[in-house]
Amino acid sequence: MRVLILGADGYLGWATCMHFSGKGHEVAGIDNYFRRNSGLELDCESLIPVPNLVQRARIWKELAGGKLRVSIGDVTDYNFLLEAFREFRPDSVIHYAEQPSAPYSMINRDKAAFTTRNNLISTINIAYAVKEVNPDCHIIKLGTMGEYGTPNIDIEEGWIDIEHKGRKDRFLFPRQASSVYHTSKVQDTDLLWFYVRTWGLRVTDLMQGPVYGVSTDESDLDHRLMPIFNYDEIFGTVLNRFIVQAVAGQPLTVYGKGGQVRGYLNIKDTMQCVYLAALNPADRGELRVFNQVTETFSVNELAGHVRRAGKGLDYDVKVKAVENPRVEKEEHYYNPKYTGLLELGLKPHYLTDDVLCGMFRAVEKYKDRINRDAIFRGVKWR
Ligand code: USQ
Predict the structure, then answer these.
(1) What is the largest CA-CA distance in the chain?
(2) Can you give the pTM of this predicted structure?
(3) What is the rounded (10 degree) CA torsion for 32, 6, 358, 42?
(4) Is 185 a catalytic residue?
(5) What distance in Å separates the CA atoms of residue 219 and residue 285, rounded to the nearest whole number?
(6) Cα(244)–Cα(231) distance, integer angstroms
(7) From 3.40.50.720, 3.20.20.210, 3.40.50.2000, 3.30.70.380, which CATH number describes the 2-229+267-293+334-346 domain?
(8) Is 144 a catalytic residue?
(9) Pocket test for ligand 1, best of 238, 269, 300 (most atoms within 8 A of CB)
(10) Cβ-based neighbour number of residue 140 at 10 Å
(11) 3-class secondary structure, 251
């Protein structure tokens, strides 16, 4: 396959570049360094120092010899994206090139507007480039479980059959997101569903939960291939944050009552899921949706697991309930279905003490780089 990866420098994008390249596919990666630049702007850079994208691609080629070309540019610039499509003619395009943080989107009006513009224009540009260059190209878009919110009914995999006043139809599962970022992802899905119906594009929407971990088969080859790893309030996902907080000797920041349940997955499983989706493309005129999680936890349960694993490594991990800066339900029903990717062959890496200890060990190496000021700033939703 010829695979174009947008957002190739990010936490998941770089790992995905190596994963496809390592399996013998031709990979082109694009990134505009949004994540690096925002880390600088907001003083919340990656815990792990990572070479720039061009250097990483060179290191990967030296070590693994895979076909991987990268370029720096902005996917919201249509001429740039169209040129990249014309040159590379991808069979699949994987869209990670979005502003991925809920707190970032809630900092102020400018960040909310940037998130909306970046995420929606990039999605529209991809739809147009695919239609123009190769309408058969499979679009794999990273969505989020947060699009569904926390409804008081079971969450289906993307679609729901509704019977109303004696008539039946099939709809996208109702969505009610709880940040501007998550709302931009709802709008993304709507845009792609429109282009699927109108132009017959083939699209897979991967509704991913918060990802944790730092190690993939490919990043384990050399420390210079490790992903960007954030633990700060803006870009860090909760479990990655908790491990860094534990190593830094800070109490784990459980927001509110801590009963917020989400579906989680190991970064290794993100690689598997995206790969399985690419190997088994959606049909022309199909918007296929998978819920990309492997197990669910409340924030309190996560804190308990980190505390227990930390104890085994002689850490005295403390937990602190902080006033929730977000507006979200802190106790709620949560029962998402997530069988589609298992049916395609996903073999989950569950959250065991071994996995947690591996994360502790990886983070300990960079302990001196932890910026305590970045851990909690309290970006408020209200
Ligand atoms: N939380 C805490 N303490 C913290 C940080 C977070 O209790 O220090 C809580 C949050 O309030 C939330 C839960 O942990 O209830 C998850 O928070 P998160 O920051 O790990 O996840 P979220 O903001 O939802 O966003 C992350 C990624 C985003 C992805 C999303 C999947 O940044 O790109 O789309 O996870 S999901 O959560 O399913 O929408």
Answers:
(1) 64
(2) 0.98
(3) 30
(4) yes
(5) 36
(6) 6
(7) 3.40.50.720
(8) yes
(9) 238
(10) 25
(11) coil
β-sheet bridge partners, residue 71: 30
Instruction: Give 199-237 pLDDT, tens digit per residue.
Output: 999 999 999 999 999 999 999 999 999 999 999 999 999
- 11, 181, 231, 334: the catalytic one is 181
Q: Is-contact 196 131, C-beta < 8 A? A: no
CA 61 / ligand 1 centre spacing (Å): 34
Catalytic, 350? Answer: no
145 lines ligand 1 (CB under 6 A): yes
List the domain boundaries for the chain: 2-229+267-293+334-346
Q: Verify whether ligand 1 is closer than 6 Å to residue 240 (CB atom).
A: no
Q: What is the pLDDT along the chain (382 residues), one digit of tens a residue?
A: 999 999 999 999 999 999 999 999 999 999 999 999 999 999 999 999 999 999 999 999 999 998 899 999 999 999 999 999 999 999 999 999 999 999 999 999 999 999 999 999 999 999 999 999 999 999 999 999 999 999 999 999 999 999 999 999 999 999 999 999 999 999 999 999 999 999 999 999 999 999 999 999 999 999 999 999 999 999 999 999 999 999 999 999 999 999 999 999 999 999 999 999 999 999 999 999 999 999 999 999 999 999 999 999 999 999 999 999 999 999 999 999 999 999 999 999 999 999 999 999 999 999 999 999 999 999 999 9
Residue whose CA is at the smallest distance from ligand 1 atom 12: 260
Q: Alpha-carbon distance 291 to 338, whole Å?
A: 5
Nearest to 208 by CA among 67, 10, 18, 1: 10
* Pairing of β 167-172 and β 92-95: unpaired
Cα dihedral 298, 302, 308, 313 in deg (nearest 10): 180
Taking alpha carbons only, the member of 266, 222, 236 closest to residue 355 is: 266
Residue position matching structure tokens 């919110």: 149
Encoding tokens for residue 92? 């699949």
> Whose Cα sits closest to atom 11 in ligand 1?
255
